[in-house]
Amino acid sequence: MPLGQRQGDNGEARYCGAEAAFSSDIQQSLSFALGGSFDFIVAPLTDPVYRPSKAQQDSEGSAIVPPFSGSDLVLSPSQWSSHIVGKISTWLDLDSPDALMRSDSETTLKQEAGWASHLSLQACLLPTPRPLSCGNYARCVNQVLQGLSNMQLWLRIPLVSPAMEAAQGTENEDLLFLERDEITGRFKNDTWEWWNMFRTLCEHHSQLSVALDITAELPAPNAIKRWIGEPLRAAILHTSAFLTNKRGYPCLSKQHQNLITTLFTHNVQIVISGDCLHQVDEPPPPSTDANSNGAEDVYHAKHPLKSYLEYVSHLYRKMDPPTEQERFEMGYRDFLQAPLQPLMDNLEAQTYETFEKDSTKYSQYQKAVRAALLDRVPDRKVATTTTVLMVVGAGRGPLVRASLQAAEETGRKLRVYAVEKNPNAVVTLHSLIKLEGWEDVVTVISCDMRRWNAPEQADILVSELLGSFGDNELSPECLDGAQRFLKKDGISIPSSYTSFIGPITASKLHNDVKSYADLAHFETAYVVKFHSVARLAPPQPVFTFDHPNLETLMDNKRYVKLKFELSPDTGSALVHGFGGYFDAVLYKDVHLGIEPSTATPNMFSWFAIFFPLRKPIYIPAGSVLELHFWRCVGPTKVWYEWAVTAPSVSPVHNVNGRSYWVGL
Ligand SMILES: C[S@@+](CC[C@H](N)C(=O)[O-])C[C@H]1O[C@@H](n2cnc3c(N)ncnc32)[C@H](O)[C@@H]1O
Fold first, then answer.
1. pLDDT (0 to 100) of residue 289
2. Which of 16, 80, 327, 514 is the most exposed place for a label (fewest CB within 10 A)?
3. Whose Cα sits closest to atom 16 in ligand 1?
4. Could you name the active-site residues (predicted)?
5. pLDDT number for residue 283
């Protein structure tokens, strides 16, 4: 039975499983778990005593393979696929020094994965690899992955290494934390390193994901955070992670609660595992109903993990329901979109409609225009002054409306020009002006602002030509052209904007780019609603543009070199690319933006922008990442190039704008 239902959220995290021991009667194991309100079980498919090398030989010396598992008929196909996650035998050791063990392990792994695939299971749980010594295991798993249709393989990784867990509170703890593997030089007890080695050997296969074991100890918050950008499908929550409340029931520490809630919101399924460590008084079994026509009164023994499930379910139901904005954004999470090119292309009605729903954006503009009008026209000049305001790139008119409302609020008189180059939007602009009776105040100009010969100079130039990375929709080039008709002391709203960038772990996005199987997609920027993305360091400013541009020689080419340091408690991490954002100063203290630390709340017009790396870059704990970023301008296009030079070197991406550019 699902843990609950949050409005509009149909994620997998609603389903909770139980780890079950091997049973020759899987049907019984499943109905026991379902009777205890679990949704699925993680169960071994093969008797743990089975070893291929012990199979008998026939008279010709070929192995007689005994049935290594029960019949597929014991459950229906939908029961297998909806309620069973196969647990690959835990005795497997494909990196053992013992050749027989390796060969038995390889045979069993392939047999079990093949059997699970035959049953159409959604996933199989792979045993934890040896720390930083998993070459053969990963190779065999990669071979299995090559032949899989839809099944996922979940690699079981402890969130805290068993050695670290055992050393908690002892003087060995710090030494163990810093212990490095002799061969690889990597931190031996950072379990993220185990995962990273394994998935790198498996070529970042999209069907290989992680199931994290969660016990009583948790790593530092930043070390946990980096897992959010990894392909995390399940968290195996051990009964040993639970505390006991006053009434003797299991409960979790605040840190564990926060972690589980974060996992829920990232679509990670919880699997409860371990022995029952809390003896909770049970309510008496239901009494036999005398009127039940003699039907058998079946009393199900209470599932030993039921009280843990009830607590997890309580945490799920306690979560705040998603806000309206979150519900709007859910369908866009971690989904690659091509950025708009409003200069080169004409936006569609649907796109304008989405913009226009964002009341926060327009109320920020209204505030900025209001402040500019008050500064520009003192009270004593209100009756005699008409301010000339030009909305350049007016679309279907929302900034015209915001400006007129600001004028009304301040009692200032306005003459407005609405300049728009999209002929389709101009049609709507005309009808809006007629409908609202603004004909005496607003003039519509159907023209590219860079080429318009304005009949008079403007006091205020209002525009919104901003992309997710600020200047990526060519606001600088358009406004440099438009400032010809701005008075010398005129005001531009926005008066400046700055792009920001920071390294991210984003395995899903990277795999999605990879699935296009060409270079061009790795050298393209994407608009994305980041969700299962780990920000590894705070974003830093990249390029700033001021308007009006007072430079004698206008040049919108730019270059920066940035250094990012991961916080020391993060450990090592993998960078799949960079997250880009912007912040704009509309006027004085009125700003608008999506840079995470200062983002304007409740605004949904912009998602972040993702600049991928052709190959993910490994950042060893404590090392610095050096990024180079260029904004290049040619006669017909503007483009970005980017490269990493530390801790390792990437090629320069998008040389000469060969893959991605914005047309002028
Ligand atoms: C991001 S939309 C904003 C539309 C509207 N102001 C709003 O806030 O909903 C930018 C608008 O500017 C227009 N535009 C872009 N470059 C332009 C140019 N050089 N001259 C005139 N209009 C331009 C586009 O066609 C588009 O309608």
1. 45
2. 327
3. 343
4. 464, 473
5. 59
Residue located nearest, by CA, to atom 12 of ligand 1: 393
* CA atoms of 4 and 314, how far apart (whole Å): 9
For the stretch 483-528, pLDDT in tens is: 999 999 999 999 999 999 999 999 999 999 999 999 999 999 999 9
Find the domain containing 656 and state its range.
502-579+597-663
Using the atom order of ligand 1, give the atom closest to the CA of residue 448: 20
Looking at 466, 493, 520, which one is the last position of a domain? 493
Question: Which residues contact residue 279 at a Cβ distance below 8 angstroms, ignoring those fewer than 6 apart?
Answer: 248
* 395 touches ligand 1 (CB under 6 Å): yes
Q: Does residue 303 have its Cβ closer than 6 Å to ligand 1?
A: no
Q: Rounded mean pLDDT of 127-131?
A: 97
How far is residue 402's CA from residue 407's CA, in Å, rounded to a whole number? Answer: 9
CA pair distance 132, 152, nearest whole angstrom:
23
Say if residue 414 is in the same domain as residue 452.
Answer: yes
CB atoms within 10 A of CB 657: 18
Q: Is 592 close to ligand 1, i.e. is its CB under 6 Å away? A: no
CA atoms within 13 Å, Cβ hemisphere of 358: 20
User: 420: Cβ below 6 Å to ligand 1?
Assistant: yes
> Could you read off the pLDDT of 468-477 as tens digits, one per residue?
999 999 999 9
- 352 among the known binding-site residues? yes
* Residue 464 bears catalytic tag: yes
> 541 and 465 in one domain?
no
CATH of the domain at 554: 2.70.160.11
pLDDT in tens, 323-361: 988 998 999 999 999 988 888 999 999 999 999 999 999
CA–centroid distance, 426 to ligand 1, in Å, is: 11
Return the closest-CA partner of residue 627 out of 524, 539, 507. 539
Torsion sign over Cα 588, 589, 590, 595 = positive
In a domain, 584, yes or no: no
The torsion angles phi and psi of 149, rounded to 5 degrees, stand at -85, -80
Instruction: Consult the annotation and say whether 213 binds a ligand.
Output: no
Q: Does ligand 1 have an atom closer than 6 angstroms to the CB of 340?
A: no
Distances (CA, A) of 527 to 226, 255, 332, 515, 638: 21, 33, 10, 17, 17
The count of domains in the chain is 3
User: Whose Cα sits closest to atom 4 in ligand 1?
Assistant: 395
How far apart are the CA of 342 and the centre of ligand 1, in A?
6
24 CB contacts (<8 Å, ≥6 apart)? 47, 70
| Whether the CB of 477 sits within 6 Å of ligand 1 | no
